[in-house]
Every structure is written in structure tokens, then in C-alpha cells.
Amino acid sequence: MRVTVYVGQSADGFIARPDGTLDFLDRMDPVDHDMGFGEFVQSVDALVIGRNSFDFVMNSGHPWPYGDTPVIVVTSRPCEIPAALRATVETTSLDPAALRDHLADRGHSHLYVDGAMTARTWLHADLVTDLVLTSVPVLVGEGLRVFGPLEREPSLRHVDTTVFENGCVQTRWAIVS
User: Fold this and answer.
1) pLDDT tens, residue order, the chain (177 aa)
2) Which residues, 6+ apart, have CB-to-CB distance to 116 below 8 Å?
3) Scanning 23, 88, 119, 134, which has the fewest C-beta atoms within 10 Å of its C-beta?
4) What CA–CA distance (Å, rounded) separates 85 from 70?
5) Nearest to 172, CA basis, from 129, 123, 133, 124
6) What is the Cα 119 distance to its own chain's centre?
């Protein structure tokens, strides 16, 4: 199974400020530059998203960005799914390996894993196969990193890099070990 982590970050590698705000990511200007995100979402069979990230998306005031893609919210606490999304959104508390196997049994072959804690957990479980990191041209100085401390150092193979008109730089990596 292919498992991709797709993340926006500051040029110095932070995905959120220390208080969790993401205002600096607004510089990506997704209205004018989707930077391949729409095409990427169309390429995945399902999205595995952490509870905090799901809540952020739901409270962002923006339209639901995942269309009809099945979404699995990883959470250990009750989560109210809006009626309009119940056909495509479900919750789970399965660990990453069990969830990957469950989704493979359901016929999924390419997962998008979103949310810092969820991405970190999947990386530590050696389940992530691809990284797409989009760096916004701003230095934040401190905050939350997508992976945090690592128990091991996975080797990466560069796939490609794209520089967008808005100054963002997107690098795709394959995890090889």
C-alpha cells in the first residue's frame, strides 16, 4: 500500500506556530495556486486524518476540501460527524498497522495521511512510503514540526521538486528504508 504524507510548512520546517495557529500557511494562496493538491486528492483512495486536524478543517470556514474521498478520522474521543459528511467520513481508534490492513482489505491502495500526530505515528510505524513537503517562503522560528524526534532516520529518495510562482517550493520524496 502507498501511504503519502502531504504537508505545508514554513521554510524552516514548522507546520504550525507554538500555539497551533497556521496563519503563515495562508501565504500559499491556495485559491489561486492549488499547487497540485486537487490532483493529489484525486489520486488517493482514502484520507486518514487526525482528530485535531479534522476539527481544524471543520472549523476553518472553508468548503470541505476532500470531495467524495473516504475520510477516516483517528480519534480516541467521541466525534460528531456532520450529517452531510456521514456517507464518506467515519471514525476509528485502530493503530496505524491495523488501520492500514483494514483499509487494504476494503480495496484501498493509496492513503493520504494528514495531521502532525497522525503522520508522526504512521512514520514511526514504518508505514509512510511518500512525503510531499510544500515550503512556504517564510521563517517562523519555532513551532510544531511534522515529525518531531525520530527513533530512526529513514532514508529518502528525491522524486521531484517544483517551484511555484507564489514562491512555494514543493519537494516529493520516496521513503526507501
Assistant:
1) 999 999 999 999 999 999 888 888 776 665 556 788 888 989 999 999 999 999 989 988 888 989 899 999 999 999 999 999 999 999 999 999 999 999 999 999 999 999 988 999 999 999 999 999 999 999 999 999 888 888 888 999 999 999 988 889 999 999 997
2) 15, 16, 50, 53, 144, 145, 146, 148
3) 23
4) 10
5) 133
6) 7
The DSSP result for 97-158, as a single string, is: HHHHHHHHHTT--EEEEESHHHHHHHHHTT---EEEEEEES----SSB-SS-S-SS---EEE
- Hey, what amino acid is at 132? V
Predicted pLDDT of residue 133? 95
Question: Which amino acid, residue 25?
Answer: L
The number of residues making up the chain comes to: 177
| Nearest Cα residue to 113 out of 101, 134, 127 | 127
Look at residue 161 and give its three-state secondary structure.
strand
Q: Name the one residue in this structure whose C-alpha cell is 514543493.
A: 170
Q: For position 150, what pLDDT does the model report?
A: 80
Task: Walk across the sheet containing 2-10 and list its strands.
Answer: 89-92, 71-74, 46-50, 110-114, 2-10, 130-136, 169-175, 156-163
